[in-house]
Amino acid sequence: MRIEVKVPVLPESVAEATLLTWHKKSGEAVRRDENLVDIETDKVVLDVPAPQDGVLIELVRNEGDTVTAQELIGYIDTAAAAQAEDSGAQPSERAAATPDAQPAEPAAAPSPPAAQPAAETKGGAAAASLGPAVRRLIEENKLDPAAIKGSGKGGRILKEDVLAHLKQAKPAAEAKPGPSPVPAPAPASSPAPAQAPSVIELPRSGERLERRVPMTRLRQRIAERLKEAQNTAAILTTFNEVDMKPVMDLRARYKAVFEKEHGVKLGFMSFFVKASVEALKRFPAVNASIDGTDILYHGYYDIGIAVSAPRGLVVPILRDADQLTFAEIEKGIADFGAKAKDGTLSMDDLMGGTFSISNGGIFGSLNSTPILNPPQSAILGMHKIQQRPVVVDDEIVVRPMMYLALSYDHRIVDGREAVQSLVCIKDCLEDPARLLLSV
């Protein structure tokens, strides 16, 4: 039976995608739920699993092609798999059994080398069924997928399986003596071969070299949205500074018991999320958006947390942040960071949002003017904490200070609302008890 392979359903905001990498060639056997191809949207990389066992008999679209939701990209023949199994044929020989294939030569007795493709096909099938994050981890550590026991559906290899395999292999490698050193595996931060790295390294030979690299769909979308924000919104930025000593003292006092109780570290972001929610409650326009000639005032608080990923900047969403505890916020942000690094953020993680927070301080930024994330009307910029002399009670003291920046759309947010909302965030951080008492 000839069945179709189609592009998955894409969210309404995603009009098209790019066919990134085929993991199977025409004529190769496939297993149900085995990853056939990677589809890159402007937000995430999606797997396209095989719907049934069979043979991939035709590739309708090629790598690099632009595709849309539910578009036909290939065909699988399930009857070819059944015929191959009935005749005892190896997976690599199943292509000859497909109705569309060219007539095969009369079968001959298998020779000893004929057993090799079966083993290679086994490893190839295991590699092809991997998600982008798992495949990258295997490639970086130069592992054989066939040697890793998968715990996922149908024996599919998950990230946890690879990490467990590495953990088991490490003691054995350390204990094994050898006269010559073994080359270390590539570092975990190396970019995946299938994805364009964020920074292109050129040889430092003194030559005037250039390298042209196509923008990824994500990078194109980032450029499009940022330019859209600059072209359509009336962006202004108001600044303030916050004394971080109260928050830092509170963290120092409770960080050990917090981590022991909740299994996650107490960071700064949960304080900023809570303080931002408090400000948004008091100044609804900062949590609103423009839709044509209407203003949409959102009665919920979905906070976007800007995360730098290998493929570019992404903004996963903490939904209903007003209902989350400090621990739930910290766990959510930690999960987003891990997913962004591994390339496993889902569409749902990235859709929506009513307000965003960007922390340039982790890269050393002392001050900046963040750009809006359309259609949101405001974004908070955090920066580096720096010891500076300040006046407290008519005395000069040294305090850990951070500059805050709130960029806002002046079409919907007045200057008074923007300034007062940023002051509210400052007040909550300098007196964290306000976050508990909502005062």
Top keywords for this entry?
single chain, 439 residues, seven-stranded mixed sheet, 11 helices, globular
Could you describe the 3D structure shown?
The protein is of the alpha+beta class and 439 residues long. A hairpin with a 2-residue loop joins strand 18 and strand 19. About 15% of the residues have low confidence.
Q: Helix and strand layout, with pairings?
A:
Elements: E1 2-6, E2 17-22, E3 29-30, E4 35-40, E5 45-49, E6 54-59, E7 66-67, E8 72-77, H1 78-86, H2 116-128, H3 132-140, H4 159-175, H5 217-232, E9 235-243, H6 245-262, H7 269-282, E10 288-291, E11 294-297, E12 303-305, E13 307-309, E14 312-314, E15 317-318, H8 326-342, H9 347-350, E16 355-359, E17 378-382, E18 386-392, E19 395-409, H10 415-430, H11 433-437
Parallel strand pairs: 12-16, 16-17
Antiparallel strand pairs: 1-8, 2-4, 2-7, 3-6, 4-5, 6-8, 9-19, 10-11, 12-15, 13-14, 17-19, 18-19
Helix pairs in contact: 7-8, 7-10
Distance between the termini: 67 Å
Radius of gyration: 27 Å
Largest sheet: 7 strands, mixed
Mean pLDDT comes to 80
Proportion of residues in β-strands: 15-25%
| Number of extended strands | 19
Low-confidence stretches: 84-125, 176-198
Structural class: alpha+beta
Quickly count the helices.
11
Question: In brief, what are we looking at here?
Answer:
It contains eleven helices and 19 strands.
